[in-house]
Amino acid sequence: MLQFIADVMAATGTFGIFLLMLAENIFPPIPSEAIMPVAGFAAAQGKMDPLAVFLAGTFGAILGNAAWYEAARAVGQQRIERLADTVGKYFGITGEDVRDAAALLIRWGTWAVFLCRFLPGPRTLISVPAGIVRMNRWIFYIATSIGTACWTAFLMAAGWWLEGQWQEIEHWMEPLGIAVVGAVLLVYIWHLWRTRHRWRRGGAGRPENLPPQG
């Protein structure tokens, strides 16, 4: 995992960081917790410009969140709820989840958008309810940008620090990277199972106006 990220960055430079962070915030194949420390490590070694690394990671993440926000804003809550109730079970999402997220966004507003930047999973998903409730664009993008910049800088700093401690920690860095990705996958699988189980029990996704069967 970490070697793959390093290879992408070696081949494509800061553009690779941009693409990886963009992908992480559209559909998280590789968490930013793995991407940006590797980028910070490379910057500490003098292989990349620190400012360019920071900007590439930050703008990639912002663009990924912008895609979700604008799509949700254009599609609207009712259609997203119907979509979640029909195919969302395969991704661990139901219409109820959409409604709950929208209610959370209405309650906490800017703070929800900002604080979710520091959490895997919610950092992507929070953009959907923000679009659904048609949160002010300026507020959304400012909160997203500040939160993303803080998180990116923190992860970069962690990678920078790791470079100075490399001889002491080299032997467990790869297992740690695998553990991080594995933990994210396990949480996703558990959430997916719980959602599908709830969908079967509650009949989520079945239109209310259908006549009873049997």
TrEMBL record:
Report the residue ranges that make up the VTT domain in this protein.
30-159
Entry membrane topology = Multi-pass membrane protein
Which Pfam family, any one of them, does this sequence belong to?
Answer: VTT_dom
| Record-given protein name | Membrane protein DedA, SNARE-associated domain
Xref: InterPro entries: DedA_domain, VTT_dom
**Transmembrane annotation, as ranges:** 50-69, 138-160, 172-193
Provide this UniProt record's keywords sorted from A to Z: Cell membrane, Membrane, Transmembrane, Transmembrane helix
Species for this entry: Muricoccus roseus
Cellular location of this protein? Cell membrane
Its lineage reads: Bacteria, Pseudomonadati, Pseudomonadota, Alphaproteobacteria, Acetobacterales
Where is it found, in Gene Ontology cellular component terms? plasma membrane
Is Magnesium found in the keyword set?
no
